[in-house]
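Hi Y.,

Following your request, here is the sequence exactly as I used it, all 272 residues.
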Amino acid sequence: MNDRVKRWLEDGTVDLFLGYKMIMGHPLPHCFVKEKIEEVNDLIIGPARYSLEKIATHIAAVKPDIKIGLLARDCNQRALNVLYIWNQLNPENVRTVNVNCCPSNLKEHGDCSYLEHEAAGSFKRQVGIDNNLQPENIEGYGQSQRLSRWMYEFQKCIKCYGCRNICPVCFCQECSLEHRELVGTGALPPEIPIFHLVRAVHMAGRCIDCGLCEDACPVDIPLRLLYQKVNEIVSDVFDYKTGTGDSQSPFNILGDTVTLEPKPIQLAKTAN
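Below is the corresponding structure, written out as tokens. Let me know if you'd prefer a different format.
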């Protein structure tokens, strides 16, 4: 890996490479460049996960023609696919060193445990939502119970914007979560459930199930589960798997004519 990155920097395949370097005992994102090529010896793969592709979008926004290399786990690659589709990065200017490590439902045969949560406490299991559940498990609760459990989770929010800031596919220049007509300012918790439902709607067709939002959440809101449900709806209606290919998102409408063709939702048969 290190030899390949050195070769890319030396022959101009990339102008910089985004990876991880141990800094004061912590594996942190680092930009490796030709001028300090000896630093590539410190390039590491470890348990740390950051949205390196989001850093790439910020760099590309300033220098659109720059050639960027980056270390890409499966979730990073899915995010790159989304960013390509939404014209946030040019795939011709990006090279990746891939690492297979993803346990997401969007990736089969993953072989890591980064997204495994600790067992939920008894109170959370009683009144809230266990982060380890799947969307279909939540459907087992009645409608009023689902509402009360999600409201319990949302009311913990301290409006830190950590979920948005870490998200690799949040790239709007004007964020709806800061729009006064949608989300009031100056109060905690933020208006619930509007704050989190607005973000959930924006994750439809974008969320690549990396789990970074939930990792960043200081109050342990099961955000990954919420966005998995949103993506499940997108999959059921449009037969679209986010980040798994280069096909356009059903919400990325180009041209003057809307050509979306939702497929009929298959309703479960009721028992006699």
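The longest strand covers residues 16-23.

Thanks again,
Q.
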